[in-house]
Write a structure and sequence with these properties.
By secondary structure, the protein is an all-beta fold. Helix content is 2%, strand content 52%. It has a 10-stranded mixed β-sheet with strand order 6-5-8-11-1-14-16-17-20-21, with no helix packed on it. A 9-stranded antiparallel β-sheet has the order 7-4-9-10-15-18-19-22-23, with no helix packed on it. A hairpin with a 4-residue loop joins β26 and β27. The longest helix is centred in the N-terminal third of the chain and has 7 residues, at 42-48.
Length: 688
């Protein structure tokens, strides 16, 4: 047997199974190979491997490199085996899970394996990481391959009713042997440190570090020998185990860890929308356990999942799709001794269907559905929610978190399932829940949408109460346009119901508003025109003498005085304009005389006017005319510019206002003079 460098599977297992079959005939062809084990001789290989003492000559013919007799074989030496015509398969691949491949002796590459395929002498079977396989022989015995294991098959023969004892060589890894009676002949399992004779029963052989562990789970006592001269064998009864270190005799048998017990006789879950079940499994504690090995197998017997759980934890959570499973758990102590697995725990994951309200097909995996959705129990199951009787189909009518409990055939009771259901409404813009109002005698259209935070189907319809006359259009599967003619209504109130089949899932009330009373004659209101009068004070000298009246000296410039005037204008809500005329009796800076100042001006107003008053900015221009104190003719007219603000209140249509303005006019000797004016006045709004 040639060691395959591509076998990153990390384990090599060479086995010889005892099968009853007629002897095969020798034919030309490429020979197979065999790795010499400690204690092997050429004659022993011819008997145990080739199945016939007479095959010794053919063996020597294909091994000329051995030289003249006698031959001293060294462990690990590779010898050739003559090719033979197989007289039927030596075994079958009864199970293959994950990446399992096979390789014929004449091939250099691996090919995918298939369950049920026939296996012949010198064929290799390899199970990669997270993979496993099972080889079944004619007597229904099997050898189980855990992950990262390679098996090489040698076909033993039966000649003259003589059964040759089978031999399996385990170099590294774990071999699960479940053997039938084998007509009283054992299967010998060799490791680098031990030899074990297996008969009917279940035995686990493991190479651990530099030694090996033999755990007899069930059946007859098994003899265990150390692969060292003079070592005495020990008999390992069921429930016991022995360890064999390199160069030493087997250790006395010791008890294996106890078998854990499942905390429940069975477990079941119901899943929705194709989601896997989050299955939590628990078992009793084993005092000597360091770890636990949990193995799940599906209905076909294939390992669906394997978990190693460190003690003292006694639970594991796994994700399972819909189907049936069996779970076993075994305890492993600190020295690597693995006890017998527990009785299988039946697990059932059943798929239920959730059909949204107004739908005909099950919804995929969702978090929420609209109230009124239907749950179809798995075949043969019944479910119940909200205190209602259990049935094979239930309706989730309540809004909120609904707990569903399902029971299956026999005593199966599934873990509760929580489903979130949300309210469904007919929404119409901002007024989502109030009445739909239609004025009497009018025709109004409403856009109504099916509103819900959960999944809702499309097979929905509107039902209009007989008091109303309406036309229904459906632009999308979940929206409607309803046109109601109030002139044809037979009552002031009605309803619009959203239905899924015969079930009502939402509604809106419709109210016919009474006709409005005739409008009263429009009272004659006030318009924007107004007239008024004002009085106040003005200061014409702010630091610089003005040029009004052409004063001969700065001391004769006009100074200050009171004023009175009239105004009229047009004032809308935001804009207006006014014209004002005013007369002022003013004095001079240093001269004991008075003069009359006549003003005419116009300005624009920008602000805000309401019935309670007004606030505005004022900007405009006009003229100042000075009349001498003796009442003579008009002496001089000068332009003036001004700006300011106005504030007023308007009780009963009379605007009482205060104005403050800053004026600009020519100064003596050139430049600009400044003045300020403060007035209070009253304006009356004229009727329209």
């Amino acid at each position: 047997m040639t060691r395959d460098p591509a076998a990153a599977l990390g384990v090599a297992l060479a086995m010889l199974a005892a099968l009853a079959a007629p002897a095969g005939a020798q034919v030309p062809g490429a020979p197979t190979t065999y790795i010499v084990q400690p204690g092997d001789t050429c004659l022993g290989i011819a008997i145990s491997i080739l199945g016939d003492r007479g095959a010794l000559d053919a063996y020597h013919q294909v091994n000329p490199q051995l030289g003249p007799l006698p031959h001293d074989l060294a462990p690990g030496q590779i010898v050739n085996l003559p090719a033979r015509v197989p007289a039927g398969p030596d075994a079958k691949l009864s199970r293959a899970t994950g990446d399992v491949k096979v390789r014929a002796p004449s091939e250099s590459t691996w090919a995918p394996a298939a369950r049920g395929m026939e296996l012949f002498r010198a064929w290799r079977v390899g199970a990669a990481a997270k993979a496993s396989a099972e080889l079944t022989f004619r007597d229904d015995s099997y050898l189980g391959m855990r992950e990262r294991t390679i098996v090489v098959i040698y076909g033993p023969e039966k000649k003259l009713a003589k059964v040759i004892t089978a031999t399996a060589t385990l170099e590294e890894g774990t071999l699960e042997a479940r053997l039938g009676d084998l007509d009283g002949k054992p299967v010998v399992v060799k490791t680098p440190t031990s030899e074990t004779d297996l008969r009917a029963g279940d035995v686990l052989v493991t190479t651990a570090g530099s030694g090996s562990i033999i755990a007899n789970h069930r059946g007859k006592p098994v003899p265990v020998r150390g692969r060292v001269a003079g070592a005495k064998p020990v008999r390992v009864p069921a429930g016991m185990g022995s360890r064999v270190q390199p160069g030493k005799a087997p250790e006395p048998p010791r008890p294996l860890p106890a078998t854990p017990a499942w905390m429940a006789p069975h477990a079941a879950w119901v899943v929705l929308g194709g989601r896997p079940a989050r299955a939590s499994l628990a078992w009793s504690a084993v005092a000597s356990a360091k770890t636990y090995r949990v193995e799940l197998r599906d209905a076909a017997g294939d390992p669906a999942q394997i978990a190693i759980v460190d003690a003292p934890a006694r639970t594991v959570e796994v994700a399972l799709a819909a189907g049936t499973y069996r779970a076993t758990v075994a305890a492993i102590d600190a020295d690597g001794f693995e006890g017998a697995a527990s009785a299988p725990l039946p697990l059932v994951v059943a798929a239920a269907e959730l059909v949204p309200v107004g739908g005909t097909q099950p919804t995929p995996s969702v978090d929420r559905v609209g109230a009124g959705a239907a749950l179809a129990a798995p075949p043969g199951w019944t479910c119940a929610a909200g205190g209602e009787p259990a049935a094979d189909r239930i309706v989730l009518a309540a809004v909120g978190s609904t707990t569903v409990r399902c029971a299956g055939p026999g005593a199966l009771v599934a873990a509760p399932v929580t489903i979130e259901t949300t309210a469904i409404a007919l929404a119409s813009g901002a007024a989502d829940r109030g009445d739909l109002v239609v004025p009497a005698g009018q025709r109004v259209s409403f856009q109504l949408a099916v509103a819900s935070h959960g999944v809702v189907g499309e097979n929905l319809a509107l039902d209009i109460s007989p008091e109303l006359r309406a036309i229904v259009e459906r632009p999308t599967p979940t929206s409607f346009v309803v046109t109601i003619d109030a002139a044809l209504a037979s009552a002031p109130r009605g309803r619009i119901a959203l239905r899924a089949g015969a079930a009502e899932i939402a509604s809106r009330s419709v109210r016919i508003a009474p006709a409005a009373p005739p409008a009263a004659p429009r009272a004659r209101g006030r318009g924007p025109w107004q007239v008024g009068a004002f009085a106040g004070f003005q200061l014409l000298d702010l630091g610089r003498a003005g040029d009004l009246g052409d004063p001969p000296t700065p001391g004769s410039a006009l100074d200050r005085g009171g004023l009175i005037g009239l105004r009229g204008g047009w004032l809308r809500r935001r804009f207006g304009g006014e014209i004002e005329v005013a007369a002022s009796r003013t004095g001079h800076r240093d001269v004991e005389e008075t003069a009359t100042l006549l003003t005419a001006r116009a300005h624009a107003m920008f602000g805000y006017r309401e019935s309670f008053g007004a606030l505005a900015l004022v900007a405009g221009a006009g003229t100042h005319s000075v009349v001498q104190a003796n009442g003579g003719s008009l002496a001089e007219t000068d332009p003036v510019f001004y700006w300011g603000g106005m504030f007023g209140v308007a009780p009963r249509g009379i605007l009482c206002r205060i104005d403050l303005r800053h004026s600009l006019f020519a100064a003596s000797g050139g430049g600009v003079a400044h003045g300020v004016e403060l007035t209070a006045g009253v304006s009356i709004e004229l009727p329209r």
